[in-house]
Task: structure prediction
Amino acid sequence: MEDMKDVVLNYVIEEYLEDEDEEITYDTPLISGGIVDSFSMVSLKRFLENKYKISIPDEKASPEAFDNVNSIVKVVKEYV
Amino acid sequence: MSHIGSYDQRVKNFDWSIAEKELGYHDGDPINIGWYCSDRICEMGKSDKLALIWEGHSGDVKKYTYNDLRVNSNTIGAFLKELGIKNDDRVCLFMDKIPELYIGLLGILKIGAIAQPLFSAFGDESLHVRMENAETKAIITQRKHVAKVRKIRDTMPFLEHIIIVDYDGKHPLREKETAFRMDEAEKVEKLDIHPTKAESPSLLHYTSGTTGKPKGVKHVHYSLISQYLTTKWVLDLHEDDIYWCTADPGWVTGTSYGIIGPFSLGITQCVLDKGFGADNWYQFIDKYKVSIWYSAPTAIRSLMKAGEEVVKKHDLSSLRHLASVGEPLNAEAVIWSEKVFGKPFYDTYWQTETGSMMICNYPGMKVKPGSMGKPFPGITAAVVDPDSYEVIDEPGKPGLIGFKPGWPAMFRTYWGNEETYRNKFKNGWYIPGDRSSIDNEGYYWFIGRDDDVINTAGHLVSPFEVESALLEHEAVAESAVVAKPDDVNMEVVKAFVTLNPGYEANDDLELKIMNFIRKKLSPLAMPQEIEYVKSLPKTRSGKIMRRLLHAKEWGEEIGDTSTLEDDE
Result:
């Protein structure tokens, strides 16, 4: 569980975080916080699907469900 | 009573001088949008009225009166002048939806410089190509976006100043970088407003076409006349309204109707600088008692997707009038909004080049769900034959939309590209590139684009630009990009690629290519799907037949393939 959280957090930091000084945690709002926009969510979802060999239905990948690392991990866990 | 009253009467008695009179403008007078949107409102006795209520993603709130708008835009203008920015210099605004963006635009205009707002999610290449075209002298940005500017700054010798509005002193500023914090700066009470005239340039907005680089759409200060009156009559803003335009001022809706329209009318508007979320949005309407809401079909369809339960959690009774722009608003969305909010969304049609609304649904006029509505009074519109550009009179017969040039907000040229500008006019009509028909009651019905440009969530993406960027990825040998239908965004980008030897077509590579485009161009331009193919369909002369791939995606007839090189 911890590992998955770190994997997602590190991916978000590496791929989406523009401000190098900004620190984010498992609870930092990603979508509503403007770090990941709704179009980029598609690539984040694709990353999770590739990494964990799962398929997340589009209706489960809502802006609310993808709004922080904790909630993303919750969604992923349903399908792993 | 709505401002427009009877649409038919307005059409009959229309003259743009209605707006000129209301604004106190006479032919030949100086006209400066920055002054009209702040100083003039103060002179009308509304200094203490709230102009802008801003809420950030962490819930922080800032409020600015019209006097604050006046003084802060003076302060930004004076700061730019001190840096050596002169009239007609291009100043780029590259920020999220923060107050400095809204007020900074007015400051730039006040000193006669040209504002060049760019969407802050643009990647470094998208930013570079637009700044290079405009030979931008200064860019105003935020700490979080400065890395993209630093990446390209050395290739732009014309760029003299990089202004950071939230510099925190943690790292030293680099060459050409300057810190400016609007809220803490010493206020400039009086600024000499540059006496711009009707034809003085005001804004450069960039738009994409099928081929070539993005084009800088040049607007002038006289555009205010159209923007003021359309805001008043179409959005029906009244003195006590609280207005929310959800568009980003990196795009034309966000400036014409998120800055110029409401501020020139002295209206209070709210801005939410937060990513999309149905609950967030409804909460925002409830909290600030938004009465007029101007949004986009993609957002409306996303709200539909979120369901009706979340609507019931909030009191949305303040909503009085709803309007939409970006791509055609489907009938289902209009009907849904009537059911859920008790009022329909009124669709409006216009584009970057037109600068203001052109075909709209108006308060008091019957809405036909799915229709674009009727031309704004004073706009001569028609559907014309795509070959002869003669007017089609037959109801229901499809053709190209055409507008008679001459409305105040019409663009004046493409920056440095006069030839392409001239090509947009045929047989006396400006041709925006959209197909439509007109029914027997004069309502326009959108059919689609007349070119390969992809309209995703109301933003135009050039397939050529994405194809070119794809070729810069080491794995990609050839590429073709088309629109793919999408329930929420209307269209999304889909790419077909062939790979260079040594690369394996797999999901990981697809993601790498997607992210490559996202960072280079923008999240909007990122292909949401990449299909690996052995070869792309080409004509015998080697040109990629994009239309075959498009037809396949849309389940359409493939049509004439006689010039096809082979079928794989």
